[in-house]
Amino acid sequence: MGACVSKVTCCCRKPHNGVTNESADAVTEEQGEAYELPAFQEFTFEQLRLATSGFAVENIVSEHGEKAPNVVYKGKLDAQRRIAVKRFNRSAWPDPRQFLEEARSVGQLRSKRLANLLGCCCEGDERLLVAEYMPNDTLAKHLFHWESQAMKWPMRLRVVLYLAEALEYCTSRGRALYHDLNAYRVLFDDDCNPRLSCFGLMKNSRDGKSYSTNLAFTPPEYMRTGRITPESVIYSFGTMLLDVLSGKHIPPSHALDLIRDRNFNMLTDSCLEGQFSNEEGTELVRLASRCLHYEPRERPNVRSLLLSLAPLQKDVETPSYELMDIPRGGASSIQSLPLSPLAEACSRKDLTAIHEILEKTGYKDDEGTANELSFQMWTNQMQDTLNSKKKGDNAFRQKDFTTAIDCYSQFIEVGTMVSPTIYARRCLSYLMNDKPQEALSDAMQALVISPTWPTAFYLQAAALLAQGMENEAQEALKDGCNLEQSSSSGH
Q1: Is residue 180 annotated as a catalytic residue, yes or no?
Q2: Which residues form the Protein kinase domain (predicted)?
């Protein structure tokens, strides 16, 4: 779901792009201890509401279930660390203790092969999980719905190896069960390295099933018993080997018929012609058929998969983003983006220029903001609220920023009218008074009210720069510029 959501320290000298038979034993140790992230923590609902701009529709990454009971949002913690937030529907996880125990257990895992769980939220009926954000789509997108180029053979081999490494790491930490392993559960990070989503490690909740995919892809023993076992996970791994080989989602029963008839051409992606030898293709088919064995005990274990896949690796020194032909870090650099006058002023922390632009723009960006006023509000209190705004605007115009903060605060505290522009003006007033943390909070609140407002992103950047957070400020500027570009081009 790269921007890796936190600063990661790696004690390895270079990225691990493949393992040999001899090095397979070191995989778990290397991934476990070499990958550092903040400890698992419990977030407040308010923190996650702010991070996702009020769970804005624009921030939805994926939805699951007939009526989308579980929705995943992208967000930013404190406008800095990118995160993915999974929000369950209200009937899921009725027992808060069970939810917290499960989340804390999965949250102990730390591997560069996982999109790791950073925390959770359990307040009232709310159940939310917080994970690292992976910006470069899912394996399903790159295999089944690609636009410019099909995934290359060496990258496909890397995907299944890294996936086996992820499963082995989880098994070594006592989490051998993975619910509904499929191509949507594999995500690509900033460097385009594949990672396994941590969400599938959570035990079943009341409203979910261990397998949400078509029954044709479900392990046969699950159909009989309704229980998932480590061998069931291997079966699902076999279906993914078929996905990678064919570039299609072929039902296992059909695939096994093709294998029995030695009809390998029907099993291999035509886009891969000339990219691999018959021996390599045959080995992957052999491995898939072993994983898909009807009898669970006849299937290989994860370590066996790892040892079979490691020798097949090709182009192990080539970074994943090169194999995928995707710019490293995802989005383009700030230098390549056309900056509007406000973006330019915020990138230079030119507070005087920002003031001039906000003053000139006025309240036109508040158009369409929902303001519900009851009949009672058209009274003295309403008049007082409008007077606070008027006094604040006057102070803002006169550059009396301390008075502006007081007046705008009075307006905000009454809470009968919502105005992103007032948060933006108070944000700048805080910056003028050397209060960057308060300014950042206001920029985030403006984004909750108006999730697609570039001004809020630009002001976030100015507040982050005032705190010396150069990289995070660049990200905020990029987000604002991309929004402005897409709106001007009519998307």
Answers
A1: yes
A2: 58-313
